Amino acid sequence: MDIRVDDLSGSKVIALVNYHLQGMHDNTPAESVHALGLAELRKPDITFWSAWEEEELLGCGAIKQLDPKHGEIKSMRTAAEHLRKGVAKNILLQMLETAKARGYERLSLETGSTIDFEPARMLYERLGFAYCGPFADYTDDPLSAFMTKEL
């Protein structure tokens, strides 16, 4: 698996990000969707990775820098045909390594609290993330689960 920083210009990556956004809106009311679109993911405070096997896109993920010591995981998505193959875990491990190298002390995330998001929450739990309250600009929302990991 080749995990690399991506500029979000390729058609496969654009399609996966759009698929991610559609999935968020299919499972969550609009006011509780915190997924970022392409323009937001291209901002300089975000690093975006894509995972590949040769020419096949497996998944993606991003880190948004909240401050010099705190990052936020964004846009974690595995292509439907590659679920349960370790794609998200490998992307997340890459993000954790990068966050540590940058000197971050913490990585946090917001994900859904419903059954649809249970596999994601379980992955984060397995990799040491713990539940916490809202961070950054988030507010309490019964459809959100907030998690963080001290690095």
In short:
This protein has 151 residues and is an alpha+beta fold. The protein contains 4 helices and 7 strands; from the N terminus they run E-H-H-E-E-E-H-E-H-E-E.
SSE inventory with pairings:
Elements lengths: L1 E4 L5 H17 L10 H4 L4 E8 L2 E12 L2 E9 L8 H15 L4 E7 L5 H9 L3 E3 L11 E7 L1
Parallel strand pairs: 4-5
Antiparallel strand pairs: 1-2, 2-3, 3-4, 5-7, 6-7
Describe the structure.
This protein has 151 residues and is an alpha+beta fold. The protein has a domain at 2-106: Gcn5-related N-acetyltransferase (GNAT) (Aminopeptidase). Helices cover 30% and strands 33% of the residues. The chain is built from four helices and seven strands. It has helices at residues 11-27, 38-41, 87-101, 118-126; strands at 2-5, 46-53, 56-67, 70-78, 106-112, 130-132, 144-150. The chain has a seven-stranded mixed β-sheet with strand order 1-2-3-4-5-7-6, with helices on both faces. Helix 3 links the parallel strand 4 (70-78) and strand 5. It is globular. The model has no long low-confidence stretch (mean pLDDT 95).
Corresponding CATH architecture of one domain: 3-Layer(aba) Sandwich
Class by SSE composition:
alpha+beta
What is the N-to-C succession of helices and strands? EHHEEEHEHEE
Number of strands: 7
Radius of gyration: 14 Å
List the keywords.
151 residues, alpha+beta, Aminopeptidase, seven-stranded mixed beta sheet, globular
